[in-house]
Write a structure and sequence with these properties.
CATH architecture: 3-Layer(aba) Sandwich
Structural class: mainly alpha
Order of helices and strands: HHEHHHEH
Radius of gyration: 16 Å
Strand content: 5-15%
Number of domains: 1
CATH topology: Rossmann fold
CATH class: Alpha Beta
Helix content: 55-70%
Length: 108
């Protein structure tokens, strides 16, 4: 509703978790859905590198959360993505890939 009211030309929405959310945006706006993917192994390494005291149980918690989100429908939302950015490198690598994609989308 805010997006419609303000009549923004370009908007980034983060954290879409279900196909229902994708469908709402696609009904109202011209939407390009971008999925950012990192393998479970990479995600766990990143969690472990934080060095927090509660990280010992993070792999189990991460897997449980992934399964819960898959049941909620995140897999369907990911499957509907127009673009996928693979996030297996550094934050600088991700930033570069994302900037290149955004440049193509905004100029193309």
């Amino acid at each position: 509703k805010i997006i419609q009211k303000e009549q923004y030309l370009k908007v980034v929405v983060d954290g879409i978790r279900s196909l229902d959310e994708v469908e709402v945006f696609r009904r109202v706006h011209s939407v390009k859905l971008i999925s950012i993917h990192a393998s479970p192994g990479t995600r766990f390494k990143r969690l472990s590198a934080r060095g927090r005291s509660d990280d010992a149980n993070q792999e189990k918690i991460m897997i449980e959360r992934d399964l819960r989100e898959l049941r909620f429908g995140i897999g369907s939302a990911i499957a509907m993505a127009d673009y996928m950015v693979v996030n297996e490198g550094s934050i600088q690598d991700l930033r570069k890939k994302f900037e290149e994609l955004m440049e193509c989308l905004l100029l193309g």
